[in-house]
Amino acid sequence: MKRILLTIACLMLLIQPAMAAKGKVRIAYVEWDCATASTTVAKAALEEMGYEVETLAVAAAAMWQALGTGDVDAMVTAWLPVTHADYYAKVKDKVEKVSVVSGGAKLGWAVPAYVTINSIEELNANADKFNGKIIGIDPGAGLMKLSEQVIADYKLDKLELMEGSGATMTAALDNAIKNKEWVVVTAWSPHWMFGKWELKYLEDPKGILGGEEQIEAIVRKGLDKDMPEVHAFFSNFKWDSPAQLQMVMAWNQEGGSPEENAQRFLKEYPETVKRWMGK
């Protein structure tokens, strides 16, 4: 009996290092709906591959800084070439672009479809209808920096950019639409709100908010040598279409946690997941 127990103990000592051999992956993200969806699904897929994965929700500036210093291994929510241009410029020699997670991304200011103006240039003349407010998100977001520039360049002196979060922005939008009120919000696509409500982007004749963008996966330099399989995963990590990402975002709004919906995606879209894994 003692010999059997000793044999089992020896086997466990051999098995445990093998189980832990794949190591730990750290992914930073900002708590935007699109970033949460992409990050949580990537985490679930990497865990399926046998890795321990830690996700860190931080502000945009901190996300880029952590990647530049090597404190995290990757992110899947870099908005380029405009929104995160300043952040990327500071760390571009220390990081590596590896994939386009989703194309068709866009920034802008959005209003409900029933609002009768169509351009940012018309906001000042209608400031009272918007209660003198532009509903923003977290202050560290690239979209907020661009929005401050929009206010300055269009001389929108009758409106104030309100800081908040993605959640407070959509809550304000929801409340305004229920009451058929005018509201203007800082917005981006892909986002579930465009599927829930009839919205339109206001025209930006000066082009300050930029044109079409893409969401990219960025990893720290050296990941290809330290964890080649993880590097390959992020190089393959791309949604089949912007609509697929928006679908997962919608799931997260309809019910279930992001973690539960990530597992749902792995079960319902195995071919996509296999491609990410290089199978």
UniProtKB/TrEMBL annotation:
Cell compartments where the protein resides: Cell membrane
Gene Ontology CC terms: ATP-binding cassette (ABC) transporter complex
GO terms for biological process, alphabetical: choline transport; glycine betaine transport
Cleaved signal peptide residues: 1-20
Keywords recorded for this protein, A-Z: Cell membrane, Membrane, Signal, Transport
CDD domains recorded: PBP2_OpuAC_like
UniProt keyword Hydrolase present: no
Major site of localization recorded for this protein: membrane
Gene Ontology molecular functions: amine transmembrane transporter activity; carnitine transmembrane transporter activity
Domain ABC-type glycine betaine transport system substrate-binding intervals: 24-268
Name the record gives this protein: Glycine betaine/proline transport system substrate-binding protein
Organism: Desulfomicrobium norvegicum (strain DSM 1741 / NCIMB 8310)
